[in-house]
Amino acid sequence: MRQSFDELAGLLGLTLVVYDKDGYLQGDCKPSPICSAMQATEEGSRLCDRDCGGMLDQTAKSGEFSAFKCHASLYSFAAPVQAEGHVRFVVLGGRVFRNYADFSAFAKLAPQFEIKDYFFEDWDNSVRFENTQYFERAARFIQSMADASFRGSSLGDKAKKRTDQVNTLYDLASILSQQSSPERIFELVLQAAGVLFDIQGGAVLRAGIGDANFQNVSSFGALTTGIREVHLTEHPDFESLGQGKTLFLDATYPILRMGYPETVNRIQCFPIFCKDRLVWVLQVFNTSLEPGSVELLLSYCRHLGVILENVLMKQHAQDNQGVLSVVTNFNLAIGSQLESQGLYRAILLKTAELVGAEQASLMILDEASQELTIRFVKGLNEKIVQNLRVKPGEGLAGFAFETGRPILVRNVDEDSRFNERQRARYKTKSLICVPLKTSHRRIGVLNLTDKANGTSFDENDLKLVESVASHASVALERTDYYQLTEDLRKISLTDSLTDLYNRRFFQERLSEEIDRSRRHGQPVSLIMLDIDNFKSYNDTYGHLAGDEALRLTAAIVKGSVRNIDRVARYGGEEFAVILPMTEITAARDIAERIRTSVASRYFPDEALRAAVRLTASLGIASFPQHAGNMFELVGNADKALYVAKVSGKNRVALFDRLPVTSAAGKV
Questions:
Q1: Which helix (H) or strand (E) holds 539?
Q2: CB of 297 closer than 8 Å to CB of 193
C-alpha cells in the first residue's frame, strides 16, 4: 500500500500521510516542506497537532470523510479506510492552497514561525493551487483506492469486490478529465488497475503513424522493462481490437516475435478508441482476469476513450474552447446521475438547453422488441407519445439510429422526406437527429426541434449535439453497468424466494448493531421466528404452496416492523428480526404483533385456495441484557424460540422470563 500511495501522491500532486487507527504514522508520501517548517517550532507543532491531529482522531472515531482548512491556510482531507465496518487506517492528504488569498494569509503568518524562504526557490514546487473540484474529487478517489486495496486483501465476496472496482474506477474518471496529458491519464489508470485487479504488470501502447508498430507510452510493474515498440498488428486476430473486442495472447513464440521480453507470457489487450479509430491498447501482463473483470475493463476503456478525446481536444483545439466548455458543463450535469430515469432527464434537458430546442425527445432501443421507445420528452405530451414505437430504419430517427449518422434538416418544407401533414407539426421547420452509440453498441437517438429564437438549426448546433452525444452514450452504458452491479449486490445480500436479507447479511448487520450498541449504550434486541408445523404443511399441500407460505410470512413480518428494523431469512422456515435501540419489553410488543398477524392470515393450499391457517413461534433476547456478544445473542434468542415451541407453539418467549410470556389469546 505504501508504494501505491507514493505513486498516487506524485501523480496527483498531493501530500499523503497514512496513520493507523491508533494514530501511529505508517507512511509520509510526498512530504510538505511547509508543514515540516511549521512543525519545527513549538507553537507550530502545537497548532499542527490541534488541526491535523484533531481531525485524525475525529475521523478514526466517526468513520466519516471530512475536509478542513488548517491554521496555515492549507486545505487537507481526512479519509477513513475501512474493512468489515471498522476504521483500519486514516489518510491525511492534500495540504494545498486553493487560491492566492490563502497563500497571502500564509505569507503573513510565516514570519511568526521563523519561516522566511516561503518564496520557495528550493522548496521543490511545494506551493500548489488546486481548485475545490479537483481537490475533492482527488480526495474521494484516494479514499476509494485505499478502501479497494484493503478490502481486496480481506474480503472474498465477489459482488462486493466488483462493486468496489466499479465505484473506484468511476471515482477515478471524475479526475482524469482534468489531467494535462494522455500520459498522466494512463499512469493513473495503470496504477488503479494494479490495485483493483492485482495485475503483475501492464502497459499502454499507441498506434504508430505511417507504420504497423505500436509504441509504449506508459508502463506499470517490472515486467515492462525493455518494452518500447511492438509489432502487435502481426497477430492474426489483431482485427478484433479494431472491432472493439479484447485480444488474449498466451503463445510464447508470437509474443516474443512481436517484441515483448521473455518475462511476459500472457497478455490481455483492451482497445481504446478516439474518434472511432483504434489509437491505444491497454495491456495486462501475466495476470489471470475473471470474465467479469475483463468486461469491466473493456467497458471502462470505452469510457476512457471519450476522456482522452477531451484531453486531446484541450491540447490541440484552442479554437473549440466554447465546445469544450459545453462538454464539461454537460458532463457535470449528467455525471452524478446513476439511475436511468434521472440520467434520461438530465441528458435531454441539458442537450435541449445547449441548442435552444423547445421540443425534444430521447429514444432508447428496447432490446427485447428491437424497437426505439421514448424515455423522456420536452415540450410534448408524455401520454400521447408514451406508446410510440419506431423500428430501426423507419423515419428520420430510425434512419439515424440504423446508419449511425446524424441528420440536420434546416427546413422541412424543402425536404422530400416530409409530407404536408408532417410539416405542420414543426414550428420553426428545422430539426436535428443524432444517434447515441459507442464503438460496439447502438443505444438510441436524440431528437431536437423548434429552436426557441425562431431560427433554423445549423452546423454549429449539430456539432454541439454530436460533442455531447458521445458522452451521453457512455453515461447511458455506465448506468446499465451500474444497474447490473446493483443487481449483483442485491443477489449477494438477499434471499431469492422471499426477497428478505439473507443469513450472511444478517450476521454482518447484527455485528454492526452490537458494535453501535456498545458505543452509544443503547440496547439491540433480536427476534427469532419459526413457522409452526411447516414440514407437515409442506408435505400436505406441496412445495409450491410451501414457497408461497414463506413469501407471505416474509411479507407479514416485514410489514409488522419499523423502517429501522432488519428482517432476514435465517434458514428454512426460520426468520430473524434485528431491532436496533429496542429494549426487551418493546421487542415483545413487536413480536406479539407479528405472531397475531401470522395467526390471523389464511395461507393457500396447493390449489392456491385460501383455506389453511399457520402459526408462528417467536423467541426474543436482548443485548447487552442477555448476551455479551453476537453469538450469545443469537443462541439465547434461539433458546427462547425453543421454549416457545415446546410450550405449545404460537407463542412469544423471552430469554429472561422462560418458559413463556405470551400465548395465543394471552399477553
A1: helix 534-541
A2: yes
Rg (CA), the chain: 31
Q: Domain boundaries in the chain? A: 1-130, 318-490, 503-663
Domain 1-130 shares a fold with domain 503-663: no
Poorest-confidence range of 76-90, 112-126, 236-250, 589-603? 112-126
Structure confidence at residue 526 as a pLDDT band (50, 70, 90): very high
Using a cut of 0.70, tell me whether the model's pTM lies above it: no
| Rounded CA separation 613/541 (Å) | 12
Catalytic site residue from 130, 136, 573, 592? 573
- 1-130 CATH choice from 3.90.550, 3.40.50, 3.30.450, 3.90.1570: 3.30.450
Q: Is the C-alpha dihedral spanning 655, 659, 662, 667 positive or negative?
A: negative
Distances (CA, A) of 397 to 110, 451, 455, 494: 64, 18, 22, 41
Looking at domain 318-490, what is its CATH homologous superfamily? GAF domain (3.30.450.40)
Q: In degrees, to the nearest 5, what angle opens at C-alpha 288 toward C-alphas 287 and 293?
A: 105
Whole-number pLDDT of residue 660: 43
Q: What is the CATH number assigned to the segment(s) 503-663? A: 3.30.70.270
Contact yes or no for 270/169 (Cβ under 8 A): no
Please say if 136 is a catalytic residue: no
Cell representation of residue 476: 447511458
The identity of residue 162, as a single letter, is R
Range 486-494, long-range pairs (CB < 8 A, 24+ positions): 488/159, 488/162, 488/163, 489/159, 489/160, 489/163, 491/159, 492/157, 492/158, 492/159, 492/160
Could you give the CA distance from residue 74 to residue 64 in angstroms, rounded to a whole number?
20
Check residue 146 and give its pLDDT: 64
